[in-house]
Every structure is written in C-alpha cells, then in structure tokens.
Protein 1
Amino acid sequence: MTAAFDIILCLLILGTAGIALFVRDALAAIAFFIAFGNLLGLAWLGLDAVNVALAEIALGAGVTGVLLILARARLLALGDDATCADTSAWLRVGALAACGGFVLLLAAAVLSIPPESGLDRAITPLMPALGIENRVTGVLLAFRAYDTLLESFVLLGALVAVWSLAPAGVWPGRPADLGMADGPMRRVAGSFARFLLPVALVMATYLVWAGSDVPGGAFQAGTVLAGGLIVSAIGGAIGLPRSDLPGLRVALVLGPLVFLLIGLAGTGFGGFLVYPEGLAKAAMLSIEYSLFLSIGATLALLVTGPNVIGLADPAGGTERKSDC
Amino acid sequence: MVTGHVYALTGAVLTGLGLFAFITLRHPLRQLLAINVVGAGIFLILGGLGRGPDATDPFPQALVITGIVVAVALTAFGAAMIVRLAEARAATKAATRPDGGKPGP
C-alpha cells in the first residue's frame, strides 16, 4: 500500500482514538472506540498481518465494544452515566507534560530501531516439518506453544474471576439475562440470531480449519462463535446456561485441558509441548478445535458478566450523576 | 520513512494519548477504555517494528494476538468489577436512607 494511505489511516486512527477518549458522552466514546478498533484492523491489514487484523476487529473492536456497551447500560441503570467531572487544570498540564515527554522518548526509541522481519526468515525453513503454512499459527501452536497454553488458562482464569464477583446468594445460578426488553426489537434480534448462529458456527469451523494454511485460527474462530452466541442471547433465541451445568464446565475446560494433555504427551517425544513427527498438524488441529469451543463459550460468558440479583429500574435513577 | 515506522510512531502517540486520558479521566469505565487504547498503541509498536521489506515478522504477530485476547479478558474483569462496585454503592446508599432502603432515586 502507498505511503499516503498509511499516513491518512494513521491520522484517522489517532483522531478516532482522541474522540473515543475525550468525548463527553460515554456511549459516543464507546462507538468511536469500536470505529477505532476497526481502523486499527485496517492498519494491521496494511502491515500484511491478516491474522492480527481478524483478531483486532473481532476481539478488540467487537467483543470489547459489546462489553463496554453492556457495562455502560448496567451503570446507567444504577444511575451512573459514566461522564466525568473536569479535573483541575494543573493536573492536566502536568499529565500533558509527562505524557508528551513519554511520547517523545518512545518515538525516539522507535526510530532508533530499524523495522525488520528477521525471525520470519528463521522460521520459514522450519515450517514444512509442521505440515502447515500459516506461520503465525505455527508460532502460536508450535514455536511458542507455551505462551498460548498459558493464555488459554488466563482466559479461563478471567472467567473464574468474573464469576467470583457474583453477589452472595445468587450462585450458582444463571448469568445476567442479555435479552432486549423491548418486544418487537427482541423478536427482530431473535430471528436474525436464528439465521446468524448456524452461519457463525460454519464460518468459525472453517476459520479453524483454514487457520493452518491461510489467515484464521482458534482465537478468531472462537470470537465468531461467541458473537453468534451473544446475538442469540440478546434476541432470546437461546437461554444462557446455569453456571454449574456439567456440560458447560466441560466446554469451558476442554480446550486448555486438551492442550495440556497433548503437551504432556510430548514429554514422550523429547519434551513438553513437542509434537511427534508427522503428527504435528493432527495435534495442532485437535488443540485448535477444542480451544475454539472453549474460547467461544468463555468469551460469551465473559461478555455476559457475573450472576446478578436484579438491576434497579433503568428509568429511575438517570438524573443521579456519577461521583467521579 | 518506512511503513513500519509510520505505524510504530502512531502506536507511540496512541500510548501517550491513552496514558494522558487514563490520568485525567475520573471515571473507571473511561479509564478502562484508555487502557485499551494504550494496549492498542503498544501492539502497533510491536507490529510496526516487525515490518520487514517483504513480510511482517510472525513472532510479534502471534504476541499481539495473545495480547489482544489477554486485553479482552482484562477488560471483561475490569468492567465486571466496575459494575459490581456501583451495585454495592447503590445498595449501601439505599440501606442508609431513612425510608427503609427501597431502591430508586
């Protein structure tokens, strides 16, 4: 892509980020944050990193956006509209000086490093042994599989942490109902979800399979599955399961567990997370498909949040400002 | 200037913008959004500096994908904590009211 495109895109990214951070209304801020995430996805495309672009748009813009919108709606129901009182001018001047200096230092450091893709040449000769062509998947599941294993446990740990915030007495129950309150809108969302969920499932399954050779992968696919599940829950097409349902627990743990077991089995072939020769692709695909299922379920429940007692009347407390 | 540096410098400015917003904004939800912008800036620095003449280094790419997932997990936990805190505050406020703790303004 041309330099002009890169520069215009970067200016757009900075502009949307600035509006997302400093606009007064919280919903507008979140809307601009989602636009910012999508532009960032374009930037990753400009860097020829399609895997990252998929993850950024699906997770960074999509899931984070829905999470923030839900959190904002729940705060609004409690009378907190998430706007901020102005901070003192001295604090702003000080912060501006500190952050400006930090940016200058960081920019100087960045400019002192010539961009290069040295490790790309290092792993290209190693790829045929894995039987896959997508080098990012190779890094995620073979060369740096340890990171990805820990990451899958981080995701599981985050869900446990979110669940642990449930008030006493409502555990183990269902998570908060995501369904729309407005009847006709709920029906529209519901019929759209009934159409979307099977499509999302097929697309996600394809993304995992394709992730071996072309951009895709378990995390991107898991997000597509989570997106389908969330839209279905919003439209009331599916109900969210009770948190102590054995099947749900299995689905959540399956990915990290299969990853760990295959990793442990690798000790028989030379070390932890070493795949047997010739079976590397089969091992990685088994890990990816189980991870995909767990990531989809975990993300959907992370977005839903902990079990709740029942929120206050949304119409009641909107005039009370936040105490920030 | 090479493509990689354009994106890495954008990342540096984003990091600074996010930090400034994190310091000056006084609502936790807005600060959570600011942290996400800081993270996005750091990811762009990583990716931009891995941009070679013909390809982008797959190691930073994998690192950034891991980072995006961890950032989402952090955001989910942060948002849940913020909502829970607001609920607890609202419950305390209702309980200390003279009319016996009925919810509402």
Protein 2
Amino acid sequence: MTATSTPPSTSSPYAELKAPTTARRLLTAPTTGPLAALLLACVFFSLSTDQFLTGGNFSLIIQQVMVVGTLAIGQTLIILTAGIDLSCGAVMAFGSIVIARMAAEGSLPPLVAIALGLVVCGGFGLLNGVLVQKIPLPPFIVTLGMLNVAFALTHIYSEEQTVTNLPGPLTALGQTFPLGYTDVTYGSLVTIALFLLLAYALSSTGWGRHVYALGNSPEAARLNGIRTSRLTIGVYTVAGLLYGIAALLLISRTGVGDPQAGQTDNLDSITAVVLGGTSLFGGRGSVLGTFIGVLIVGVFRNGLQLMGVASIYQTLITGVLVILAVTVDQISRKKAR
Amino acid sequence: MSRTTHLPSSLLRAAAATGVVTLALTACGPGSGAGSGSGSSSAGSGDVKVGLITKTDTNPFFVKMKEGAEKSAKAEGVKLMTAAGKFDGDNAGQVTAIENMVAAGVKGILITPSDSKAIVPAIEKAKAKGVLVIALDTPTEPESAVDALFATDNLKAGELIGEYAKAAVKGKSAKIATLDLAPGVSVGVQRHDGFLKGFGVEKGDPSIVCSQDTGGDQAKGQTAMENCLQKEPGINVVYTINEPAALGAYTALKAKGREKDVLIVSVDGGCTGTQAVKDGKIAATSQQYPLKMAAEGVKAVVTYAKDGKKASGYTDTGVTLITDKAQDGVTSKDTAYGLENCWG
C-alpha cells in the first residue's frame, strides 16, 4: 500500500528534481518500450507504403484486433495474478456457438442468447478460478484441460456446422458508423472502452491494487488482509465474462458462428500480453500495455500485407518480438532486484 | 534507489525496441523472399494487384498453387500478394487477409476458403468494393458467393478411383474401408460420394465396413486404418481422401503384413503420393492441378482489370487417373506422366 503514496513525495524540498523524476518515470514505465516499438513500426510502414497511414486503415487494424484484444484483457488480469489461461479462445468459440445457435436455431430473442453466452463463458471462468484456487491446481493444467473441454463441447454442440443466417442484433457490433472520412465499427469502440475500463479498475481501485499484490506475493497479500481466494476466483470469472464479450465481437465481425474459430487465440492473446510488457511472473504490467501489444501484432500483420510480404514472415517477426519482450522483462527484473 | 536501477533497464527496452524495428526493416528490405520478389515485377504494366489467399502456406498443394500464381503474375506483369490462414480452418485469418488486400487495392482475390460458409460475409464485402473474387479448389457455400470457381471436379476424381477399384477387385466380394476428411467439408463429401458412385455401391451398403475421419493427416490415417482392421480384418479395398491418409493406411497394413493384398486408392497427385503409386504402395490416384487453378485465376483477374469482364461460373481444371496397373475399360496414365505433372 505504501507504494501508492508516491505523489506526495513530489512536494519534497528537492523540487528541482521533479522534472527529471517525471521523465524518468515515463521512461521506466513498462509500456514505454512497446509504445516506442509500435510508433517506430508505424513510421516504417508509413514510409514503405502509401496505403498504411490512412484513417480507414487504422480503423481496419483496430477492427482486426478487437477479438484477440478483448481476450487479451482477460488474459492480462490472469497473468497479473501469476496465472495463465490457455482456454480463452476455446471458451470464446463455445460462447459464440451458443449465442449463434440459440438465436438462429433455438429462436431465443437475440439479447437473451447473448446474455446466455456471457453466462456460459463467465461460468467457464468461474470453474477455472475455483479449480485453481480451491483444489488447488496449477492454472496451466486447469486451463489446458478446459481448453480441450471447451473445444470438444464447441464441436459437439455445433455438430461441426457453421451457423449462418444470424438475426441482425447479433452482428450489430460489426456495423460501421462514419467518423470524419473513416468508417469505424461499433465493436472497435466496445474493445477500446473495455481496455479503458479495466485500465481504470486496475490502476485506481482497491481491487486493482489487490490484483497486483496477489501477483507479487500471494502470501504477503493474504497476510495484509486481502481475501486472496475470492480475488482469484473473481479474476478468472471476470476474464470469462470478457471472453463472452469477445465471442459476441467475433460473431459480429465474421457474421457467422464458426466452430473452428479461436484455435490459436489463446497463444495470440498471451503474445499480446507479453509484447505489452506484462510479466508472465505476475504483479507487473498493465492492460494499456496489452492494448499496445495487440496493436503491434495488428500493425505488423497489416503493414507487411500491404507491402506484399508473405504471411509466414509475419509469424516469424511476431516470434522474434515475443522473445525480445520476455528477454527485456527478465533482464529488467534482475536489475531491479 | 529503485529509480536509479530502473534507468538502465529502460534504456535496454528502448534498445530492444530499436532492434525490433531494425529487424523488421531488414526483414522487409528489398530482396527478402517471395513477397518483394513478385513485387518488383509490378514495374511493368501499371499497378494491378492480385491477392492469393490459401488455407495454409505449409501444405505442398498450396505451395504449388502459389508457385503457379507467381509465374502467371510475372508473365502478366502484375503484382501478386499472398496470405494464408495459420491452420486449416482458420477463418478469421482469411477474413483479415481479405480486408488487408482490399485495403491494399487489389483488383481481384483468389481464395481457397478454409470454411466454405463462414468466409462468405467477408467475400461479399470485398465484392461490394468492386473486387473480383474467385474461389480456387474449394467452393464456397453457396457457390454463388464468389464470381467464379476454378477447381477440380472432386466428384469425378472420386468416380475415377471408384471405377478403377471396381475393375481391380474383379468381382471378388469387396470389404471397403473409407478414410474420409471431416464431417461437412464439401471436398471430402464429394470425393467419398464419387468413389461410391464409381464403385457402384449405395451409401450404407454392407460392403462398406468401416468409415473414419482422418483430416487428411498421415498419422490420423494410420490410426484410422489400425482401428478399421481391428474392427474388420478382412478389408481389401481402402478409399482415402488424400495421399497422406493413404500412406498412413499403408503403414498400418504393412504392420499387419497385409500391404500386398489390399487395394489402396486415393486422390491428389502430389509428388510424394505419385511416387507412392510408382512404388506400389498406392494402387491408383486421381491427380489434380493446383498450379493450373492459380494460373488461370491470375489471368482472369488481369482480364477483369483490362476489360472489366468478370469471370463467372465453374471452370473444371481437370483430373487424371494415375496408375501403373491399368485396368481394362478404365482410362489412365502411368506414373511417368504423373511424376511429370505432380505438385509438391
């Protein structure tokens, strides 16, 4: 808790140190490196191809990262507690099939179907959290198991069929509205709003500080009176609900319920979290960093595509970026010690 | 204290970030692989761009397809952009690729849809922006979602090996195993149905003793065949969705010492598969021509760019039965021809 009392320290007698301190703090923020990488990539692609630096293209990039981005918010929460979630993509896929089938074939009102999808995904999150906390089991194992369960349920329930002819409200978030000369999808706004909301919750609420404390040291957190058990289960449940929202965004983006969806999204979301400077060891990082992380992936994919570089190079570069990001995290941890 | 120790790490981060972008610059610099190689040819006739989106970029079938498109693009003086899903069935990856290519201003997109239905809304959006969309190899559902389809007649491919198998068993009572693709995938269903038609049996005929999905994968094909032999040791005809599945089946049969007296037929005509026909592991295969699909596709986009004329309907890119043990009354070519025209 004492760590949060830094603002008063600026009123110290050494007022002349204030400016360098702020500058330093900016430099040392875990998001600075990723942000610099993102900006440099944008500059590079702007110089390389005329189609990159347009409002329409940026709207497109955000639209392309909104599904993995929303999953990555949940993933960030879990990783901040020193956990990991391998099941997020599969849970989302199951949620999307539930929503799509209930609305298209089960003739439920669309909003009820959406609510049901959120409940299902939230339920998976809750179950993950309970297994991790109460038995307790390692998050890696629990969510590896849940990945298979959700994947199988998706294919069983969908009968391997893509669900088409969805009612309008299900794809409403995929619709666009004009913003200046650019068409923006409503779903992009939802994702950005979720990022801002969780960024606020993590940085400015007691809950958020508890999440960081839990990730840094569960034992210390418990001794400080934090109800770590409830907190852990809560984090996994919130993550599950976020996967439910991602499911809706996925449906709105593709216009169908696709049982094959999301198969690499678990690793893609972890990639985004790591690229955004969040530590896999927990306790360090932010969702805004994750937002930068998903944008880095999206910008490289889009920019390289516009330049006509084959897609396998996008994968190659993403791999190198991840290793670099984790290396930086490790080295800076050692230095901090 | 902690601040001073943080500073170097931030420098490190900045250095890493710089390194990353430098790397990106190097990776994207001139002469870095296929993308920019084909890009340089755009200097010729203006800036017509053609997009090719395959299911994956690791399967030799799609590698050959890309090769065909690259050759054709070079000859026509247009720029080719390529993309692929991360795995077979990666619809979201293909949607993203379509969007990026439309943003890049392509005149036409050639696509092998990973999910025949799920890709349709994205294709419709591209078409609404005046982009010609042609499906290669795999039709969309509905087929009319694209402007045109350039593909193998998969029903006929199945029929050819069905007729061949029928002639080869010479009236012996057949016990058939079918190693299929996956439920609901049109290519697999058509080949399977074609085989039954060619063999002259109905769906659900008692001679079909075992049917298993393999996803077209060699290891899964082997497992499937092992299980089928467990169920019915007397199997003597094996239909396989593709040659990897056929080779998996061969391995399973060989382990039981049955490889000589069981007839394996397949579809694809890849070089490995055709070699397996020559080696006698597979009796016959229906060879298809991915290179031709892509080459014709690029030409169609160029025509559209020049005259505004859109390709339409279905174009059969042909299929040939390849075997070294020709049967009377079944037209076929030998493996010398097959190896000359194989892909992969």
